[in-house]
Recover the amino acids of this structure.
C-alpha cells in the first residue's frame, strides 16, 4: 500500500497519517491505535494497548476475535501491547478489521491503557528511537530520559576500527555461508543478501562499538569480496560433485587458477553478476535500515 492509499485509509477512519514512518495513527472510540504495513505484501499490523481488569491478559484471550474474522490472521500480545495481523487487499477490509477489534474490546471489557504502565488516561502514539509505542505522557518522558542516556553512552564510545574489521569479516562469512547454502539449492535470493548485509554490519557494530559511515564502507568491501569467494566455492563444490576424489580446497584452487588463466566456465560471468544483483538488493535493504536506525536513534516525539 503506497502513501496515497494509507492517507485515504487515515481519512476513512478519521485518523492521522505520518508520512515519515508510513503509518496511520490516532484514536477511535476511546482506543489509541496505529496501523503499519509489514514486509509481506498486503499484510498489516494493527496495534493497540489494552487490558481487562487488574490481571495480565492471557495471550489466547484474542483467539475468538481472530477465529471470527475474515481479515485478521493472528495476534501477538506483549505485556499490554496487542498486535493484530491483518491480510487485506482494500481499505474497506482494514477498516472492517479495526471495527471488529473495537467491538470485541467493548464486549470483553478491555480498556485503553499505556503499554508501559498499564494505566488508563491520556494515551497517545509516540516514537522513541526506532520504536513506536502507545504511552501516557509520564511513561514517554521517563523512557525518553533513558533513551537520551543510552545515546550519550553510545556517542561517547570510541569506535574501534580494528575490532569493527574483525566483526565485519566474521559477519560476512556468516552471511556468505547463507548465500552459499541457497546457491547449492540452485537458487539466488534477496534473502541471502539481507543476511549478508545484516550480519556484516551488525558484526562491525558489535566489535567496533559503534557504526559510522566508515564502518558501513568497510562492511560493503567485505560483502563484495566474500560474495565473490562464495561464487568461487559454489563452482568448487560443483567440481567435487563431478570428481568425488577431489577435496573442496583443491577444487577451489583449481577454479581460481582456471579463472585467472582466462579459462572461464559457461555462464560464469552471468551467474556472478546475477549473484551480485540479488545479494546487492538484499544488502542495500540492510544498509538502508542500518542508516535509518542511526538517524532515528535520537528521535523522541509524540505523533
Amino acid at each position: 500500500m503506497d502513501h496515497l492509499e494509507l492517507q485515504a485509509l487515515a481519512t476513512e477512519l478519521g485518523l492521522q497519517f505520518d508520512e515519515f514512518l508510513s503509518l496511520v495513527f490516532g484514536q477511535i472510540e476511546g482506543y489509541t491505535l496505529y496501523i503499519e504495513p509489514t514486509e509481506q505484501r498486503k499484510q498489516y499490523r494493527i496495534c493497540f494497548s489494552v487490558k481487562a481488569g487488574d490481571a495480565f491478559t492471557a495471550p489466547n484471550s484474542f483467539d475468538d476475535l481472530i477465529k471470527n474474522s475474515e481479515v485478521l490472521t493472528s495476534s501477538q500480545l506483549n505485556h499490554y501491547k496487542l498486535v493484530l495481523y491483518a491480510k487485506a487487499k482494500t481499505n474497506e477490509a482494514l477498516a472492517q478489521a479495526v471495527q471488529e477489534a473495537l467491538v470485541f474490546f467493548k464486549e470483553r471489557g478491555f480498556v485503553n491503557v499505556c503499554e508501559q504502565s498499564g494505566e488508563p488516561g491520556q494515551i497517545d502514539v509516540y516514537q522513541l528511537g526506532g520504536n513506536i509505542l502507545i504511552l501516557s505522557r509520564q511513561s514517554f518522558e521517563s523512557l525518553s530520559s533513558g533513551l537520551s542516556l543510552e545515546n550519550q553512552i553510545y556517542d561517547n564510545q570510541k569506535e574501534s576500527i580494528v575490532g569493527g574489521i574483525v566483526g565485519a569479516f566474521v559477519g560476512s562469512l556468516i552471511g556468505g555461508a547463507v548465500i552459499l547454502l541457497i546457491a547449492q539449492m540452485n537458487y539466488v535470493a534477496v534473502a541471502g543478501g539481507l543476511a549478508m548485509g545484516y550480519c556484516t554490519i551488525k558484526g562491525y557494530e558489535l566489535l567496533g562499538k559503534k557504526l559510522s559511515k566508515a564502518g558501513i564502507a568497510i562492511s560493503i568491501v567485505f560483502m563484495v569480496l566474500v560474495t565473490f569467494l562464495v561464487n568461487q566455492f559454489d563452482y568448487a563444490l560443483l567440481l567435487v560433485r563431478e570428481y568425488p576424489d577431489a577435496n573442496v580446497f583443491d577444487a577451489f584452487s583449481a577454479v581460481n587458477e582456471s579463472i585467472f588463466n582466462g579459462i572461464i566456465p559457461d555462464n560464469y560471468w552471468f551467474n556472478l553478476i546475477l549473484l551480485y544483483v540479488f545479494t546487492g538488493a538484499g544488502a542495500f535493504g540492510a544498509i538502508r535500515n542500518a542508516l535509518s536506525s542511526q538517524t532515528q536513534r535520537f528521535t523522541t516525539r509524540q505523533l
